[in-house]
Write a structure and sequence with these properties.
With 297 residues, this protein is mainly α. It has helices at residues 2-22, 28-49, 61-85, 90-97, 100-112, 118-135, 146-177, 183-204, 216-239, 241-244, 256-268, 274-296. Helix 4 (90-97) packs antiparallel against helix 11. It starts with a helix and ends with a helix. The model is unreliable at 245-249 (pLDDT under 50).
Length: 297
């Protein structure tokens, strides 16, 4: 339980560190390049030290098709979630992204014909209601009105929802197509592909954009911390968790937006209205209950 809480805390802190880097000259592609390259290297070392066998030519033809595809999806998901974090308060970006269980159910139905179970159908309106409160869809909490409010947050929300859709389909493809592949190998190849996607994106936008402006030291701190935190979270997730056998309790990691809300307030000075906090609690609680029910079934 505490290991799962630690992962949620570290992942939430990773996104706060990313926003700190973005505020000081780093662009989204550069952040993804750094975090993916370092995390993939760490996992490659772990795989090597633990003697995990992996040869690409040993994969089935179906796995050889889907491993790169899933890596590409996660690469674009990384770019879109960081693009959202760069535009929205961190907690709101993560809350919008937290709709990915609904997206996964949608893709499972579309791609594999699996009907969502009753708990998912009951959770959908609750999650969407909470999200509507958290995002202040009418613009009442912001005092801007709906039009001006959505002009301000619309692009960030769109990026977060795109990230949720990409992550949802990646999860479903992983579940159906490459679940037999060792989790550490899956993660290493996925992060490697995500890094390649980010490198191409950076090249198309003039190369890496390193910290600059009035406080480049803060940018370097943010970039270093997001890389360290992301690598640490993935290392814990794919080496410790399989041994703990706590997959049924993994929904507890959905408290990540709550940790991000507190950290963003303390470090970045970001705050949201009380009604938005109520919405955040509804979303997190609904996703946690859904995950615990599905994990225990």
């Amino acid at each position: 339980f505490f290991t799962l809480l630690l992962i949620a805390l570290v992942m939430g802190a990773n996104h706060v560190a990313a926003r700190l880097a973005f505020n000081n000259g780093v662009d989204v592609a550069t952040a993804v390049v750094f975090r993916s390259a370092v995390s993939a290297t760490v996992l490659a070392v772990i795989i090597r030290l633990q003697g995990v066998p992996f040869r690409f030519d040993a994969l089935t033809s179906r796995q050889r098709r889907f491993v790169p595809l899933i890596g590409l999806l996660i690469g674009f998901q990384s770019l879109t979630i960081y693009s959202s974090v760069a535009r929205l308060p961190v907690a709101l970006a993560l809350l919008a992204f937290n709709t990915y269980p609904l997206c996964a159910a949608f893709w499972d139905r579309v791609l594999y014909g699996k009907r969502p179970d009753r708990s998912m159908l009951l959770a959908m309106p609750v999650i969407l209601f909470g999200l509507a409160l958290a995002l202040d869809v009418a613009g009442a909490a912001s005092g801007l009105g709906a039009g001006a409010h959505w002009a301000k947050i619309g692009v960030g929300v769109a990026f977060a929802l795109a990230a949720a859709m990409l992550f949802g389909v990646a999860m479903i493809l992983t579940q159906h197509e490459i679940t037999a592949l060792d989790g550490r190998v899956r993660s290493c190849t996925t992060l490697g592909m995500a890094g390649l996607v980010a490198i191409v994106s950076a090249a198309l936008h003039g190369g890496l954009q390193l910290p600059s402006g009035e406080h480049p030291a803060l940018g370097w701190a943010g970039l270093g911390m997001l890389t360290f935190l992301y690598g640490t979270a993935f290392t814990i997730m794919f080496t410790v968790l399989p041994k703990l056998g706590v997959a049924g309790n993994s929904a507890i990691m959905n408290v990540e937006p709550v940790f991000a809300l507190v950290l963003a307030w303390l470090i970045l000075g970001q705050a949201i209205a009380p009604i938005q906090i109520v919405g955040a609690v509804i979303v997190v609680a609904a996703v946690m209950v859904l995950g615990l029910r599905r994990g225990g079934s």
